[in-house]
Amino acid sequence: MTRNIALIAALMLATSSAYAQTTYKKDVPTALAKEARVDETTAAAAARARMPNGTIRSVELEREKGRLIYSYDFIVAGKKGVEEVNVDAVTGKVIATEHESATTEGAEATHDATAHKGPKKP
After folding, report:
1. pLDDT tens digit string along 74-101?
2. Residue 72 belongs to domain with CATH number
3. What pLDDT, on the 0 to 100 scale, is given for residue 8?
């Protein structure tokens, strides 16, 4: 009986964790997704394996330094800032992890916003 209750509790926890992890911001442009050999769900599993105590806040599929990557931002309880995990969109392997402070993250967001706008027209 105790074993059954423990099993049910474990299943409920796993189910609620899985549900919570499907609700994060996704910036996966269709054109880039067509180039990726690894889908976002598979890449997310690789990122979670590297950051098991974190919760995914967002993912962006982007080309960085000539490489197509999924860039995941994780929130980790008790830590300030964001843990970034980059997964190669061709191989599915984690290629980098980095801690970003709130200042670093803000500067990156500003840079990304400027880069997406393109050059100003005269």
Report:
1. 999 999 999 999 999 999 999 999 999 8
2. 3.10.450.40
3. 55
Give per-residue pLDDT as tens, 44-79: 999 999 999 999 999 999 999 999 999 999 999 999
Q: Which two structure tokens, joined as six digits, stand for 23?
A: 């609700």
Q: Are 71 and 56 in contact (CB under 8 A)?
A: no
* Phi then psi dihedrals of residue 69, to 5 deg: -135, 155
Any domain includes 92: yes
The span from the CA of 18 to the CA of 5, in Å, is: 20
What token pair was written down for 25?
């911001």
Which residues lie below 8 Å from residue 57, measured CB to CB, with a gap of 6+? 24, 25, 73, 74, 75, 82
